[in-house]
Amino acid sequence: MRCDFLIVRGIELSALKAGFSQACQVSSRSVDVAWDSVEDRDWGAAVLVTTRAVQGDVRRVVDVYVEDGLARALPGEAGIAGRLASACGSSVLYPGVGTTHMAVAPDGSATRAVVLEPEAEDEAWRVIAVQAPVPGLEGASVEVIDEVLHAELLPTPVADAYAARHGAGVREQVDLRTWERLVRRMQAGWPPDGRYRRDMYAEDLRARDALERSEDIVMEVAELDLIYRELTADHEYPVLDPLDCGGTVGLSGCLGWWWFRSPDPEPW
What are the pLDDT digits (tens) for 114-133? Predict the structure, then answer.
């Protein structure tokens, strides 16, 4: 098994060796740790750790090979990262969804992060965003990461059935699928992390605006609207500023009723 980790603190090789010994639950004799420039290694070690020092928000880049027999007894990359963070007293990052990373704190809490890897070796590594505060990464913006939300697969049976009847390429299909993805996301509790972005919610409302102007999709929209009403709370005023969010008006000449409802509780 191969693993890639980014360590926030600039820990020494001896501490890294002890950390992987605890994380992989083997003796220190079974762990070989060295800088990436060293060739004289114990290549037969059960845990082979190669590291290099870097600048910026990340101070150690670590490549790990765990022999197959041992790997089968371990909890995978996420589990090793959690154990390593605890053993080393440093937040640890490992690859997550798409280009994002997962960041694990020494207390075991985990969140998603956006890491900018430098183009040149002498440039700094930057962690520019996290979905929750992470020890050692106080300079990162705390926000919901849109790439994670876009990557989440959600069922859209209503939109799929409409597409099967009317063929591909109809503009209404795009808006219907967008509206249904919002509804299904709400039903599922806002996967994967129970969070959502206000700007993406506004995009979904704009898709519903567009559906209001179509006369060929009324039944499908009504089915999804019913679920949306059940999962949202009514408000006297628009939940989002329609001017800031680019909202359009419905057939009645005013904002559609969906602009006056919000998730309960709100996920942002």
Answer: 999 999 988 999 999 999 99
Are 6 and 84 within 8 A, CB to CB?
no
- Asked if 139 and 180 sit in the same domain, the reply is no
* Overall domain count for the chain: 2
Distance separating the N- and C-terminal Cα atoms of the chain: 37
**Domain limit, last residue, from 110, 143, 176:** 143
Surface-to-core class of residue 47, CB atoms within 10 Å of its CB (0-12 exposed, 13-18 middle, 19+ buried)? buried
Number of C-alpha atoms within 13 angstroms, CB side, residue 260? Answer: 10
If 0-12 CB within 10 Å is exposed, 13-18 middle and 19+ buried, where does residue 65 land? Answer: middle
Beta carbons of 57 and 127 less than 8 angstroms apart: yes
Q: For the segment 179-238, what is each residue's pLDDT rounded down to a tens digit?
A: 999 999 999 999 988 999 988 999 999 999 999 988 888 999 999 999 999 999 998 888
Orientation of helix 218-231 relative to helix 171-187, angle to 10°? 20
